[in-house]
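Two entries, shown back to back:
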Amino acid sequence: MRGSIAIRRIALCFVTPMLIVTCALPGVAQQAENIPPHSKLKPLFNGKNFEGFVTLLKDHGINHDPDKVFQVEDGMLHISGEEFGGLVTRKEYENYYLRAEFKWGEKMYAPRLGKARDSGIQYNITGPLRVWGRLMEFQINEGGTGDMWVINGTGITVDGHTYQSTAEPSPTQYIRIAHIGRGPLVNVTGDRDPVNDLEKPHGEWNVLELVVAHDRILYFVNGRAALVGTNPNTTHGKILFQCEGAEVYFRNMEIAHLK
């Protein structure tokens, strides 16, 4: 999400001209948790068509995809990366466990040519459906997969610090929270975290797991705890698989209700 800013590790938050605050605190104090008990996983995406979803593109709106940004290929969701937007669930979800796999493709598009590949799973989307509306995000980004974004009014507590984004343009409209033990970000294609890289090598499948409970949110990347957040100010909403300038594939998107 909005990874066009090169970020170095610092022990405080800074403001960019694009009204984004990046909090690159190490996150080592986060206490890893296990995935809680849940019902049997069921497909969120059927691997055949976009039943249960709508397409959202910044320049074309809802369900108008003339460039075929979103396609089903061999049971996978193929996102070309050519525009900004996402494939969005029609339904809202709460109190759930989501599991999905992703891998990067090769193609990239302006304005992100030469920059770190970027995508994400956005969730707790409420309000009018638009690109980067009121939501939270499981960041998928070379060098930073497992980070969190709180955007346009959402908020959460991580490591005892509360991150509250604003619903209007301000220095805290978009806030990025580093995953556990993350190293410095370098916004170039192929970037790898030199300290705690959770991603597999380029072209391999990665497993993402997201827990959205009423009192906490948990991220896991390839079986490793990435982030623990508590007391989110939003606990339900739609889910979006993001298109942001880089070709990406998703498969085996499944969801289960927490017990």
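entry 2 starts here
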Amino acid sequence: MQLSESEAVVKHTILSISSLFESSEGKSVAPYTERFALQHYTQAIQRLKTIHSEPLVLLVCILFICVEYLLANNKIALQHCQHGLAIMEKCSNPWARRYLMPVFRRMTAVPMLFGPEDIESESMPALTYMIPTKFYCMEDAQYMMDDIFNRVVRLCHMRHRGVVFDMTEEYNTVGTHLQTWQTLFERLTVDTTSLLYQAQERSLFMRLKLSYLELSADFRHEEHMGTFRQVLQLASWQSERSAKPSSFELAYTPMLFFTILKCPDLSIRLPAVRLMKKLGSPTEGICENLQMLTTSRGIIQQEHGVEIVDIDS
């Protein structure tokens, strides 16, 4: 928000996102709201052409992705994502690598989760990740799990599209990384009594369980109902807290959406979509939350004939 005061391109984009989000939430807004949002977005695009700062370009790229998701332009959002990943991979700016790299790392999974069917996941740039020898804080554990979960989502998407490739090597790599992650996490020294740690731990172990599930040979959902229920239980514990999670890193929505994609059982899908609504937070990724929630409702209606009028009921 401080940047919006000094950088006009950021200000215009944030105004556009704010207006579009109000419309998407079903709030009572003026009829010209979308036109207002598009005008500011157009001005932001024009101003971007004059920017030479890589970190600022990367930040604006993230904001542009949000705008396009709110406009339901998934393919254009994907183009922004690919462009940003290419810049991010070569960027050496310390601030960008510390604060923007984690965001881009998480964003690589988003198009493969609910983007168009023809997304070529094998051509999506993968950000380089160096496995640490030790976790010094929870963020270290989160960054490594981000990389692992992105690999898992990529594998799932490629298999769904029927891409022919030798999966053995990648599956073995992911399996080894999961074992390494567990070993490093067990040695991590942190305050395990803090509520933030407990929330982060649940989020991490949800991804851990889903990642192992994806690596299962000859996957049959009925053989893994216990794992799906454990994932829902981990999310339910978090939802019982009085406040919504305020950290983007928790990212419950993508994991619950992944659960809905993997398990066709309605007894799992309905609680998952309700938890998506309850745990979703504007600070956790407003665009992804809205798109995944809408897509989940559509899946349940199409495959089960159940129209969710009141998602909380």
